[in-house]
């Protein structure tokens, strides 16, 4: 048994991979204690969260029940707090809360005028028909252009979206971007059917247009326990995701000849294949591959996922805000996004249990809807990302390396 055996089981990989990786990286950074320190901290965080229960002898079902009760209690507290804020309805109150809790506020984005220009060059016929408009000018007389843009992906065909993206996103320059605040839009009642399609497909009511610096909220109430806390954390996550991509836009705009290629790759979420990785290279994975294929080989090699960084920061905003408010007890979830452990089921089998806030809100919602799905993919990605952060010297250095190497698709310790 190696020192990394438990960690290997959590990540679903041979612990030899971790030991070999640690040996090579330790030589380069001049430290040999990172991996063991990481393993020890994971264990101690589990111990602390389970309130002095011995994790090695706590049945998996009991752990899940402890976490479910924590989510239920903290979500009730958050709903009670948000309900007292100013706003005409619950959605406006959530927007107010997120705006106050988010620690990033602005960035570099495409000028809003280009949303209108794209629509005029490529009139979305399904949107026009849905809204009963005869032209884009007619449509935009009474509609916000960002709301129209948010509806495109659910009313227009994949072919239309692909062709529009390739044609209209291939010629932007530095003059087409500007610094402005991140904007939050609550879709109006005329988009109710579109909003329902979005929620039915995505299972949450928040999304974003990162190139325009917009977060939009579909005003569809989801009353299943767990979903309010889940979507509030997602809201805060998007602030940080938009801010991060804004930094990449600024970096790539300097390279005028290759900007459009890099810009489109960012918005597509391109991920390099893992087969060409060298011994000390970490793959950059800018999406949750697990949702498409839980057996994707890129999930089982050293990789860093910027999504995990955005989630860590969004959940941190939430827990910091909770720490300042006596009626919200969310600080107990602080820095748990990467924490996970193996626990024994009643039948003697073993299961990975995530201590991440988002995984647990999703697991609770599934449980309340009669499902049995136990989510852990946020935690696994966060654990890889946290380990990378520990090796390089912290989150700020990790972000610096991500921005520096994003277009390469890998980060090399060599």
From TrEMBL:
Taxonomy, superkingdom: Bacteria
Name the record gives this protein: Uncharacterized protein
Originating organism: Candidatus Colwellbacteria bacterium RIFCSPLOWO2_02_FULL_45_11
């Amino acid at each position: 048994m190696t020192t990394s055996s438990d960690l290997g089981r959590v990540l679903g990989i041979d612990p030899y991979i971790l030991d070999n990786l640690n040996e090579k990286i330790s030589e380069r950074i001049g430290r040999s204690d990172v991996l063991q320190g990481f393993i020890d901290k994971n264990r101690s965080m589990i111990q602390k969260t389970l309130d002095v229960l011995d994790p090695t002898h706590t049945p998996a079902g009991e752990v899940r029940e402890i976490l479910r009760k924590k989510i239920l209690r903290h979500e009730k507290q958050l709903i009670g707090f948000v309900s007292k804020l100013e706003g005409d309805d619950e959605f406006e109150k959530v927007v107010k809360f997120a705006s106050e809790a988010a620690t990033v506020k602005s960035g570099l984005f495409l000028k809003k005028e280009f949303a209108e220009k794209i629509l005029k060059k490529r009139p979305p016929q399904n949107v026009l028909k849905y809204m009963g408009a005869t032209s884009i000018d007619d449509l935009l007389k009474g509609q916000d252009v960002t709301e129209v843009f948010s509806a495109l992906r659910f009313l227009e065909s994949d072919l239309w979206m692909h062709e529009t993206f390739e044609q209209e996103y291939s010629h932007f320059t530095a003059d087409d971007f500007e610094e402005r605040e991140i904007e939050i839009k609550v879709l109006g009642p005329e988009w109710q059917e579109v909003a329902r399609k979005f929620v039915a497909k995505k299972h949450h009511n928040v999304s974003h247009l990162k190139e325009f610096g917009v977060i939009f909220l579909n005003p569809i109430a989801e009353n299943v326990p767990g979903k309010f806390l889940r979507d509030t954390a997602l809201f805060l996550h998007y602030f940080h995701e938009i801010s991060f991509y804004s930094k990449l836009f600024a970096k790539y705009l300097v390279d005028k000849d290759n900007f459009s290629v890099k810009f489109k790759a960012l918005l597509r979420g391109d991920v390099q294949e893992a087969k060409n990785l060298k011994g000390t290279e970490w793959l950059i994975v800018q999406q949750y591959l697990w949702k498409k294929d839980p057996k994707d080989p890129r999930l089982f090699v050293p990789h860093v996922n910027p999504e995990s960084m955005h989630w860590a920061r969004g959940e941190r905003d939430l827990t910091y805000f909770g720490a300042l408010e006596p009626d919200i007890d969310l600080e107990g979830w602080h820095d748990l996004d990467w924490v996970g452990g193996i626990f024994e089921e009643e039948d003697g089998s073993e299961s990975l249990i995530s201590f991440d806030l988002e995984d647990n809100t999703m697991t609770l919602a599934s449980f309340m809807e009669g499902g049995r799905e136990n989510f852990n993919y946020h935690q696994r990605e966060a654990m890889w990302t946290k380990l990378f952060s520990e090796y390089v010297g912290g989150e700020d250095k990790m972000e610096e390396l991500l921005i520096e190497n994003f277009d390469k698709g890998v980060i090399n310790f060599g």
